[in-house]
């Protein structure tokens, strides 16, 4: 059974940093494209960052230069380092694992972790 568990969210002041983690179990991590999405209240879920099984990365334009996605295949974990956070980054952040290489198109989602950026 595939399970994704996000952690690392919380309350941070504008300009601050957070590191999110997504730990995967179920044997699909190494071959999966991992993506981070976020959803703010009243808004659609949007892509934040992607890392393929080979380590190639892509970022949403709104986050470029402020976030870094990485993965540790020995720990079955993907990370999202977020810097220079803004109030508009407030959202629930979700990770997705797609063994077929898609971006957020698989049914394997975590439960999300809340990020709140506020003074």
Give average pLDDT, whole number: 95
Number of helices: 0
By DSSP, the count of extended strands is 10
Model regions low in confidence, pLDDT < 50 over at least 5 residues: none
The global form is: globular
Helix fraction, binned, reads under 10%
Following the backbone from N to C, one meets helices and strands in this order, namely EEEEEEEEEE
Query: Main β-sheet, in a few words?
Result: 6 strands, mixed
- Write down the Rg: 13 Å
Class based on secondary structure composition and strand pairing: mainly beta
How far the N terminus sits from the C terminus, by CA atoms, comes to: 40 Å
- Beta-strand residue fraction: over 45%
Strand order of the largest sheet: 2-10-9-4-5-6
List the helices and strands and how they pair.
Blueprint: E1 3-7, E2 10-12, E3 18-25, E4 33-39, E5 46-51, E6 57-59, E7 67-72, E8 77-82, E9 91-98, E10 113-117
Parallel strand pairs: 2-10
Antiparallel strand pairs: 1-3, 3-8, 4-5, 4-9, 5-6, 7-8, 9-10
